[in-house]
Design a protein that fits this description.
The chain is of the alpha+beta class and about 180 residues long. It has a single domain (about 10-150), classed as Alpha-Beta Complex (Peptide Deformylase), CATH 3.90.45.10. It has helices at about 25-40, 130-140, 155-179; strands spanning about 45-50, 60, 75-85, 90-95, 100-110, 110-115, 120-130. Bound molecules: ligand GNR and nickel (II) ion.
Length: about 180
């Protein structure tokens, strides 16, 4: 297993549309292991493969409440939303690729999701609550969409500007430290 770097806004790779997994093999299993290690270390409750720079339709998740509690690792390969409720709900979201920024997002309250597990078996789950929020957030990542895209243009542009400035400053600092 390997801890991987999480890519941060404004990294352009976050806008890629990830490719479906054609064949679940040893490399897929290694990718999933790296994703769990990286997600638990962050810590985060979900991770899309593109957040560690792999444009594949793979999602890991663990919605268990506390550190002491039993782990509940879940893997979603090639997840698809097959239906959405008309009813909406609002949940505060954050993203490991937009660290320390949190905002309320409105999304369908319930979604039916079809996906494959690591054995290649197909499942369908009716997601509500935090699972509904999180799986929609992750499937967005697979399509190059970030939670800030659901906010007003003003908020979104403010956030992008802030992280772009931070990235430029970090590059400058790294350069002067090397001199
Ligand atoms: O750790 C995470 N928490 C979270 C909280 C509310 C809604 C979505 C999330 S997902 C996020 C990790 C992440 O960035 N996944 O892509
Ligand atoms: Ni995210």
């Amino acid at each position: 297993m390997a801890l991987r770097d999480i890519i941060i806004l404004p990294d352009k790779r976050l806008r890629l549309v990830s490719k479906p997994v054609a064949k679940i093999d040893a490399a897929t299993k290694r990718l999933v292991e790296d994703m769990f290690e990286t997600m638990y270390a962050a810590p985060g409750i979900g991770l899309a493969a593109i957040q560690i720079g792999e444009p594949q339709r793979v999602v890991t998740m663990d919605l268990s409440k506390k550190k002491e509690d039993e782990k509940q690792p879940q893997v979603f390969i090639n997840p698809e939303i097959v239906s959405k409720s008309d009813e909406k709900s609002v949940h505060e979201e954050g993203c490991l690729s937009i660290p320390e920024y949190y905002e309320e997002v409105e999304r369908p309250a319930a979604v039916k999701v079809r996906y494959l597990d690591l054995a290649g078996k197909q499942h369908e789950v009716e997601a509500t609550g935090l699972l509904a929020t999180c799986i929609q957030h992750e499937i967005d990542h697979l399509n190059g969409v970030l939670f800030i895209d659901h906010l007003s243009k003003l908020k979104r542009e403010f956030v992008i500007k802030k992280y772009t400035k931070q990235a430029k400053q970090a590059a400058k600092d790294a350069k002067s430290a090397a001199e």
